[in-house]
Amino acid sequence: MKLLIPVDGSDNALRALKLAVEEAGALQTRPEILLLNVQWNVAAGNVKLFIDQETINDYYREQGETALKAAREAVEAAGLPYRYHISIGTPAEAIARYAAEENVDRIVMGRQGQGGLQSLLLGSVANRLLHLTDKPILLVK
Questions:
Q1: Can you give the pTM of this predicted structure?
Q2: Tell me: the pLDDT tens digits for 57-100?
């Protein structure tokens, strides 16, 4: 069983991870945890005229690793097998794409991340994801 857990560094994402880890202990076979962080594409427009691609990639990696740090530590402490990935793009689309690529069995995520005003303007990631994937989604409050 593969569980995809999108992680943005928020408390809600960590609560979702905690629930997934707790449920994994009750399963007969240990699931593989896939941690995913999505970085918004900041290299749009004329940004690439002023910043080279290597610097942009370093930025994405550093931000993604920072957001994933606590989640990785929690999964390692639980002794579960896991992989992590950092994607670039819009969260819902990147989550749906990665879930399909990895053929996950379930997506477990916090119902609200670090969206703030952006979520109000664009709609929640969870709501958008419901329309983009056929994978079961468990939203954790």
A1: 0.88
A2: 899 999 999 999 999 999 999 999 999 999 999 999 999 999 99
Q: Does residue 84 contact residue 72 with C-beta atoms inside 8 Å?
A: yes
b/e per residue 107-118 (b: at least 16 CB within 10 A): bbbbebbbbeee
Separation of alpha carbons 60 and 37, rounded Å = 10
- The sheet carrying 106-110 orders its strands as 82-88, 32-39, 2-6, 106-110, 137-140
Identify the CA nearest to 5 among candidates 128, 115, 135: 135
* Predicted pLDDT at 49: 65
Residues 94/85, Cβ–Cβ less than 8 Å: no
Sign of CA dihedral 86, 87, 91, 92: negative
Q: Please identify, in words, the CATH class of the domain defined by 2-140.
A: alpha beta
Angle at 52 between CA 46 and CA 58, to 5 degrees: 115
pLDDT digits 0-9 by tens, 3-15 = 999 999 989 899 9
d(C-alpha 126, C-alpha 119), whole Å: 10
Dihedral sign for Cα atoms in the order 10, 27, 95, 40: positive
